[in-house]
């Protein structure tokens, strides 16, 4: 019996081994896969390499991975990162050997072509996956499972490559109709890559040299530097050899974006800055970072999953935030493991390090499996529709404007919001509402615009100075520190504006380090002793204001200075005089404007001054210019009719049904003999007509009586609109406290199913059941064996007794 038991055990063990081998065989790719990524000999690429290599292993990506390392001989002498990844060395083409052009991005096609020609690995490969270094792999990338075929590669969508649709493609490929807007993730058969690679390199060189067509309206490159020539080189090269792609807009996602419903991205591309709450990450901030070689150093810790749960209610937007923190958490996990493997001392214990080593984190970041929705390919008809979506190819924009809890700002808000919706302005808009606690309790205009509430600084908390204009820089700073902002550019407006068209960074050529604004020529303090007193760089003082288009990175560096310089100029009463400030009232009212100009000068942030964005009604327009904004800050007239916003400071135009401003003259009554005056008066009429249209629509939505009589809201409606918000400062502080409380529970309640049981608890419960089942099986086997043994001994004793008898 014991022999049978042993044989049975061996049989079961053999079956288990066979099962494991079958699983391994099933997981093994039937074709050979090679993953490639291109880097240079820089610290910047080294930490990206560590992150990508770690994610490659973590995701259990099939096949091998090779780093194409482009270095000069001089760089190799001091380079420390040869051990970071399996490496194939490539001669550097950062400085073109023929033209001398400095363009490091060309190393990607040059490196791939050199690998194809000189690597033995390239002779034994069926499929190639080409990635960028700044990526994190979340799940297995298997080309044929993604739909790739020989002659039909799979690629991610790069919608901003508008050159595929215009003269650029016609100039650089014989088959512009075959140009696909793709990049980032490329999965193709090795034979296709052999055909494409030489054309990829030559077309990159060709587009790079075509400086006449670097404009944003042709390439979509907002910096107009030809930096995306390599991307066009790929698309034009593929068109030239007749390669059409299966374009997938779901496989790859930029952190900061939310995936479509049902989509599970398997690749994170952290090429753009992204933010979660007050925390943010931009790879550009770590250009020279030696973090790979500094033991114990990690990137700034993102919020914990529990905090993210509190930041966003919408489930899909929350998924986007989780992807953002996952990206940097995996980079930090990679750094921890890299430091440990290279002899660094054990890191000092911290809650965050403990989280990265926890089973819960391992569960959250286990390899992802593509869903059917993820595999959906963009059909040609769908692609045409998306290609013309004006908001996709460009960086995100957020528009903000500052107001207070007064009827005066409420009717301005109604006008600006109405015009914003008509203008086609991309992105979201936020009203920065500065109110005291007492005013907020009585305020009725909460629903007039998407709002960020800001404690009022109208009366300065330290000096007691009454200066409401300081709320603008104070509100912007508060918004930056407390709001979840996912935009790359911010457009700052005043409430007393009417939008007539979109204001975008790509059209007006705003860039990081180069904001765009409109002229405020009366700021004469930029040219005299005022600038010398209040900035260490008076030569950098720009006379600007009104409309501001600024990169988010610049705004974050600048906002605090804007506020401080405003306080500084406001306190300098000795220099309020008109001949110094240009302020006709000599009251220091334009201190905030000088605060902006001096703060920017302090950072040497020079503006592109554009006179075609904004016009004051009552001014004669330049011929042929379509101004995007009316700024009705000054009185203007048409004949005997006039409009001055100051006259409506105390009038409740919003809550009085059908209230409107005096109708301007009919355009048909204007004098058509003087073209300049006609254009001036037409714009003035348009401004106030837009305000009245906005008020009319607002009153319709208020369900005002149809008889058209002007009246106040009744008590019931008034009580519905007025909300008791309590003490604003305390509410905000309590919210912050709730977010930081219960730190010991960060890993709990992150993922729940319909039962409401945390995933970490389910994991331990399943583990317990498995252990209990195995233990139960062993107990049963033991009892069966011992029972047989006792029975055998009884029978033997019985036979012996009979023989003795």
UniProtKB/TrEMBL annotation:
The chain crosses the membrane at residues 763-784. Pfam families: HPAT. It comes from the Eukaryota. The keyword Membrane applies. The keyword Ribosomal protein does not apply. Keywords: Glycosyltransferase, Membrane, Signal, Transferase, Transmembrane, Transmembrane helix. It is a single-pass membrane protein. One of its GO terms (molecular function) is glycosyltransferase activity. Residues 1-25 form the signal peptide. Its main location: membrane. It is found in: Membrane. Residues 36-270, 398-666 form the Hydroxyproline O-arabinosyltransferase-like domain. Coiled coil: none annotated. This is Hydroxyproline O-arabinosyltransferase-like domain-containing protein. It comes from Sphenostylis stenocarpa.
